[in-house]
Amino acid sequence: MANRVELSGWVTALGLDRQNKGTLGRLVTLGGLGHAEVGADGRLHARVRIPPDELIWEPSVIVMPYGGDLELELVNDDQNTHCALLPSNGDLQWIWLPVYSRGTATLNLDGPGYYWYGSNIGNDEGRGLLGMIAVLGDVPQEARLDRPPQPRP
Amino acid sequence: MEYVQAGHAVNLGTLSGVKGSAPPVAQNVTYERILKARAEPQNWLTYYGAYDGQRYSPLDQINTENVKRLTPAWVFQRGPIGLHAGQSTYSFEAAPIVVDGVMYVSGWDGWVWTIDARTGEELWAYHHEIPFDTSLCCGNVNRGVAVANGKVFVVTLNAHVLALDAVTGKPVWDKTYGDVRAGESATLAPLVVKNLVIVGSSGGEFGVRGHLDAFDLDTGRRAWRTYTVPKPGEPGSDTWPKDGQAWARGGANCWVTGTYDPELNLLYWGTGNPSPDFDGSVREGDNLYTDSVVAVDPDNGQIRWHYQYTPHDLWDYDSVMEHILFDLDGRKLLAHFDKNGYFFVLDRTNGQLVRVTPFGERITWGEISADGKVTPKVYPEKEGEPVHVWPGPAGAKEWTHAAYSPKTQMFYVPVQDVGAEITLRRREFKESIPYWGASVNVDTKDVQGFVKAFDAATGQERWRYRDDRPISASVLATGGDLVFVGEATGEFDAFNAQTGELLWQFQTGSGHHSSPTTYSIDGRQYIAVPTGWGAWVEGFAPDMFGAPRGDALFVFALPE
Prior knowledge:
The complex is a heterodimer of chains A (about 150) and B (about 550).
Chain A: H1 7-13, E1 33-35, E2 37-38, E3 44-50, E4 61-64, E5 68-76, E6 82-86, E7 93-97, E8 101-109, E9 113-118, H2 124-127, E10 130-135
Parallel strand pairs in A: 1-4, 3-5, 4-10
Antiparallel strand pairs in A: 2-3, 5-8, 6-7, 9-10
Chain B: E1 4-8, E2 10-11, H1 31-35, E3 56-57, E4 71-77, E5 97-99, E6 102-106, E7 111-116, E8 122-127, E9 146-148, E10 151-155, E11 160-165, E12 171-176, E13 191-193, E14 196-200, E15 211-216, E16 222-227, E17 259-261, E18 266-270, E19 292-296, E20 303-308, E21 324-328, E22 331-337, E23 342-347, E24 353-358, E25 366-368, E26 374-376, E27 386-389, E28 403-405, E29 410-417, E30 420-424, E31 438-442, E32 448-455, E33 461-467, E34 476-478, E35 482-486, E36 491-496, E37 502-507, E38 517-521, E39 524-531, H2 537-540, E40 552-557
Parallel strand pairs in B: 3-34
Antiparallel strand pairs in B: 4-40, 5-6, 6-7, 7-8, 9-10, 10-11, 11-12, 13-14, 14-15, 15-16, 17-18, 18-19, 19-20, 21-22, 22-23, 23-24, 25-26, 27-30, 28-29, 29-32, 30-31, 32-33, 34-35, 35-36, 36-37, 38-39, 39-40
């Protein structure tokens, strides 16, 4: 039976944070975390990029402080073509990302909770091109249960 | 190096054959039309086909003589794309609504589609994003939509209720009515009554407090909320412990659509199990209004009367399934086939018991006498000590619906005969964490299922069809003296409604856990059935846990 150990050191030691070293691909969500920030237009903005030969989204976790619209910039710095299938209320959003390309997407997400996105061609997702958008916050007060505050885990 | 401009992301649907708009037929769907839904049998206007919940259509083109020639007219499929919540539990459970040749149907994971009901062409699609980490006790499912006033109403797994433009699929309004941080979700088909759309919440396995909510059709303004567990001091609160917060975590979720009697102006809504499901020690008392029918005034949400089927439930015997309204000898009655294995007939004017008889095959948890007295016999009582009961937590009948034919005056009931071992395992309540109070192991051997027909006047069984697997799908009865139901192994069956003879069968390739409906266009009758095995199979048919999944909507008709 495997012992529970701290993840970060072992991920590097075993090569799980690199392509075709420990496993074939790279474990997802190891490309760092970025915060969406309010822009001059009052909307949330974030940027992700695909670095060369890493097959990851960087950052691989985008944090929205609350639900709503997100203006996302996507940059493909890789020498291969990818794409992005992105969550959004109404319909999934999709963009083709040629080699050395830059594109944008507008997403609407309720939250709280988290959502996956990825490059849904070949097995880009399995190799590591899966990213996460985490939406913080709470549902509106009027939607909550009329009861005293309850213990949480 | 200059970047190539990749442009702006597009709606995925623009890269498909979807047309993008539907004919404006829903504009003319009014409350008055829904009231008289059975007068337009070419349509299936509301969840049960009509407010009475009978799931009966007078359409008779397809009948006992010609049903053997029934053949697929078209098939609609979607399939999952990307990662979604409950990836292994998604299931196609809806009851398709049809208005003047346009079908409105919801799927798993926030999908709503309109489809040309004659050809199967996709007209528009809407997708609501469901957080991957949403608490789902029983799978990534949705049971259908409501249509009225030019809008399509649907709930989402993250507990929103949406009004979509019926022509374009674009949102008109969007209201949150549950707290996903508390473990609430939503899966039922909304019910439109007067100027309101009425919805209930899911989450009884997470220790929430159940409620019904009503919203204005046009604005989305909330008209009322009624909790199905009373606060201290409210009527029924004496059925909960005086001290502590058992009431605040009490369950009683209204996670399946109710029925409605416009003359009495009463909704009949079933409520779910108490929380924790199996540990009664933290909630001494009858635990109103869990496992009950509540008769609710739609104008203000007030509970006029109630009848509790399983007081102080210790077996997870929700009573959310349909309450079928029917009249007999001048009496206004309702029929209910409960998870606990008993068939109840109540006077729907006041909730008085008229008759109770067993319909389940094996019932060992307890007994209900003819006058309604409930005597528990086998239940989890001692920590760590297993007990075995029939029926298991999925019940002798799950949420999937019975049908009533006014023509044959018989009820047609999908029956599961699956037991379970329950071992009391007490635990502390923590918000959003499953709150069962037991370890549960549902039988995978010595299981079976039935379609059973019962005489409405006497309650006596008239015929039965036995299957080696539980029957876990809704029944449809038609004026062609036919009864349609799907099996866990993928077969879609048609029976002679009078005799139970199996007349026709089609293998759809995936198990049935949905509600078939029927409609006609230019005189041609169609039968529509979503297929796609999934949801909490571990609860209702664990012997089929490895069965093929799927996501196809089959529509059948006689050859032209």
